[in-house]
Amino acid sequence: xxxxxxxxxxxxxxxxxxxxxxxxxxxxxxxxxxxxxxxxxxxxxxxxxxxxxxxxxxxxxxxxxxxxxxxxxxxxxxxxxxxxxxxxxxxxxxxxxxxxxxxxxxxxxxxxxxxxxxxxxxxxxxxxxxxxxxxxxxxxxxxxxxxxxxxxxxxxxxxxxxxxxxxxxxxxxxxxxxxxxxxxxx
Length: 186
What we know:
Blueprint: E1 14-21, H1 36-45, E2 49-56, E3 73-79, H2 86-94, E4 101-105, H3 107-111, H4 113-119, E5 125-127, H5 132-139, E6 150-153, E7 159-161
Parallel strand pairs: 1-2, 1-3, 3-4, 4-5
Antiparallel strand pairs: 5-6, 6-7
Helix pairs in contact: 1-5
């Protein structure tokens, strides 16, 4: 997969996508809700992926994204929303093998995309703002230079900050992919 955009002409679809909510169980009530934003991102990816898995670290005994990678995994999306556990999350992201396109989103990633692209060299892009439309544009093969709200590295390794995405209402036909939850919400 290319750094400045995916060449989907070669594969039409992603083979295996992981959508990761990387927060481990703690006493914090902020992480007790299901990762709704990530469920919307997964729903937006459905037309472009053969298989999507949603991984919620709060429900995993061994929270490590590498455990869920398959030889056909070609996209990993992380939802980074709160400032807790960032060192653990960065360590998890940096442990991913090269060649897997890695895209971050969520409030905390949006607030400082430069940090994530510099601290995690294998991150290809950060979606700033709501991610449903941006991830669909990425998956559809739109050039990254044309995707509003995207921050990525160009072919020379420089960070490119595209103009922000307009805040638009959520598509009424897009429903969160709750069926991808591996565990019932508690």
